[in-house]
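User: We ran a pulldown and think these components assemble together. Before we commit to crystallization trials, I'd like a predicted model of the whole complex to look at. Sequences follow.
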Amino acid sequence: MYYDSNTGLNKMKRYYFDQPTTDKFVEFLMTQAEVIAPQKKGDASYSYEVVTSGKDIVYDYPRTIQPLKKYFLPPRETLLSFDSKNNEFKKTDIALNNRIFFAIHSYEMQGIKRLDYSFTQGNPEFNYLQRRENSIFIGISFNPDKWHFTKSVGISIEEVERFSLYFEPVDNGFLVFEVDDTGKELISKFGNGLSLDASMDFEVREKEFKTKIKYHYNRLPQVFEHVYNSKVWSDIAQKCVGCGTCNLLCPTCYCFDVRDEVELEISKGKRERFWDGCMLNEFAEVAGGENFREKLSSRTRHRLHRKFKYITDHSGELHCVGCGRCTKYCPANISIVEIINNLIEEYSDHQKEQII
Ligand code: SF4
Ligand code: SF4
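Assistant: Here's a predicted model for the assembly, 356 residues in total across the polymer chains.
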């Protein structure tokens, strides 16, 4: 048992919600905004969905299949419709509901933070930023399974950055921490007349991650400076089938393609955008058929450099948040942590040779 003073939780005002109070709190949230939370999908999978009944919310879940980004960057959306005969076009209106994202894990929130960075560089991405407005996030703790490695990329389970409230499960309920003023306001509106203050001491048990990167995360960009020509890339390419699942399920991948769909009578149509990924064969293909990353080895190398080097050099943060989706759902059982650890080994051998 260990008391974690690094989480910052010990400095925050806290409340105790038993399960009936938590159910009432969800009902209250639903009166404030559209509530989105993890729900069961099939026997063993989870998905973020709009809550119609608090009973559908799953509080203890490993991860959802798709990341939360689907609410800000939909897998497919119509950007505009056009009528070339009349020389007209109309942009699609973005619905601006107030939304509360409830029971969200720290790595997911950090994924949104990285998307915020990517979509505010250069030309800010209007549709994404519109959807990001009026969003409140409420976090919850999680138990790492064999695919999570958030700690190895510098994200603790109890990282509360950008949450308004944070739920830590305790016996028969939750300790609820007030993280920011929005959270304070929610508690004050909900708790009017209720006795919710938690006087009990609390301890956050350190949860063990089964999957770990061998080096401290600060050293990873340095490793990536030396492994561009590594043999590891071609080893992985022998197993990879280029399906793109690892891109499409990644909370920090944001690439998309834009295509015009024209109606049969040719003058009318719509411009659509949909998720794309650098592991897919046609991603780097240009007019004339030239493909700049035809080989699977160069595609994997590019994907990993985007997570651990290229964007990190600008943003100062790794753009992998350790959710483990790319490994769990890879049909070829390719593990991102194994790739990194193999690269580290090669790098470390190389460094030793230099000394000798
Ligand atoms: S999910 Fe696996 S098989 Fe599919 S592209 Fe990614 S690494 Fe290759
Ligand atoms: S690279 Fe893999 S583990 Fe890292 S954030 Fe993306 S899906 Fe998650």
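The chain has two domains: 5-190, 217-355. That may be worth checking against your pulldown data before setting up trials.

User: Thanks, that helps.
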